[in-house]
Amino acid sequence: MASVHHRYATVRGHRLFYREAGPADAPVVVLLHGFPTSSFMFRDLIPPLAGQYRVIAPDLLGFGLSDAPPADAFDHTFDALHRLTAGLLDELGVTRYAVYVPDYGAPIGWRLALADPRAITAIITQNGNGYEAGFVESFWKTVWDYQDVQTPRTEEAVRGALSLETTRWQYVTSVPDETLVSPDAWHHDYALLSRPGNDAIQFALFRDGTRPPRQRTSASCTATKATGTRRSTA
């Protein structure tokens, strides 16, 4: 089975961690992780794929082993994550690739495809929302309320998404036999989520998250315009 290399690259002044495996001249597959995890989620998927592909799995800025600049010094948005991911691929000399997009990987993957559609050989989506019907109000309302207006009440409601129990839920929900899921994964994710200042990074991404047009309100537009100090946007 192919060896997996664990590397860093500096992109726009930020140190990004990525996993890479497979022949350098093979077709490229880029694996973009979701919330609340990192490229760690692909540790068992990369080796079998690497028999046929050059596999690249980065940790998004603020996640995993990549840099996590403070939220008051960097504008943590999906646009910024897209620019950094595109910059990493440029740094690695990748010009054509397939992209796998679950969860948070999706808004980055869609941006990559829209910015340079000729570079994309395939899109593999799993829980990568790109359609209005995928926004189930009973699931997303807490985040939408926080996007509309940031108060102690709305912040406390979304803070639950950063808890150990919710991180565990991401792995075991709907799994018939939970004993088949190693707790290493959610404890690893939770340890990185719990780093000082990381909650502010996640709140910034919650505020920036996609929602259906009909769910956009004047309150959310006003809140967006009223954001504070100028920060780096990568």
Automatic annotation (TrEMBL):
It comes from the Bacteria. Residues 208-234 are annotated as: Disordered. Residues 215-234 have a biased composition (Polar residues). One of its GO terms (molecular function) is epoxide hydrolase activity. Gene3D superfamilies: alpha/beta hydrolase. Residues 27-140 form the AB hydrolase-1 domain. This is Pimeloyl-ACP methyl ester carboxylesterase.
